[in-house]
Amino acid sequence: MHALLLHSSMMPNGRLVLNHLVFLTCFLVVSGIISLELCLTMLANLSRWSTNGHFYQVTDATKTWTDARDTSLVIGGYLATITSAEENTFVRNVYPSVELWLGGSDYGYAAKDFHWVDGPV
Question: Are the C-beta atoms of residues 66 and 57 closer than 8 Å to each other?
């Protein structure tokens, strides 16, 4: 499965978020944390939904929800929280055949009692 990250847009055109993501991914490459190939793949996988101005990004495959969440935090985002039918439709249209980790979990709750535990800080 892949992590679906969400980056909140702080400006209507999303320029600030995009600049931040380019800077952050370049920093991660220079620091040896990720490869240049992964950096370019991450930036190529950005999709912006004009309705909420957020950027969505799919990462490389991760085996567990915890790995997916850790990856999202390193990159400066968070696991996506789907808050409307319209947002769900957008995500399914952009990533139609990808299994995605989202920001919901049942950790700390009864089994299969999922809650949104990730989101903007």
Answer: no
* Residue owning tokens 């004009």: 50
Those residues whose C-beta lies under 8 Å from the C-beta of residue 25, and which sit 6 or more positions away, are 34, 39, 42, 43, 75
CA distances from 15 to 11, 19, 52, 108 (A): 7, 6, 14, 37
DSSP string, 16-85: HHHHHHHHHHHHHHHTTSS-HHHHHHHHHTEEE-TTT--EEEEEEE-SSHHHHHHHHHHHT-EE----SH
Higher per-residue confidence, 96 vs 14: 96
Enter the DSSP assignment of 11.
Answer: S
Note the pLDDT of residue 73.
80
**Distance (Å, rounded) from C-alpha 15 to C-alpha 66?**
29
> pTM of the full predicted structure?
0.65
Helix H or strand E segment including 115: strand 115-116
